[in-house]
Amino acid sequence: MAALTGGLLALTILGCSDPEPPPPPPVIPEEPAPPAFTPGPTLAAAIARVPDGWRARDNPRAGDAEALSEGEALYASECAACHGVKGDGDGPAAMALPQRPSDFTDAARWSATAVGEKAWFVQSGIPGTSMAPRDLEEDALWATLAFIENAFQNQ
Q1: This prediction's pTM
Q2: Chain centroid to CA 91: how far?
């Protein structure tokens, strides 16, 4: 027994005891959240041009089934060539434009402007871009925006 105890003592002293537990796995940092959308200088200038009366407006036709149907037809005739059938800025005319049209499926970009500002952009265009003014009656304007928000943001 003394030989066994002495042998264990010798093994312990020489580092032959129970192995130490393995080190914990390395901590892998989480991917940082993508940055929120920050308007570039052209859009920032366009936002600054929006009259306060428009900026504060809400869409009176939001969620209206008739407006969504009307807006879908208007979007197809007035917007889809540039902004695409899926609203992603990849319409057939987009390739010929100097800059890509807005991507309505980008939630961060969409939420960077108020609906009243969007309405102003449609009516007045955005200087320095290919977004030309659209001559829409007010009901048609709001129907188009109701469709865009419903189709591309409320998915």
Answers
A1: 0.74
A2: 18
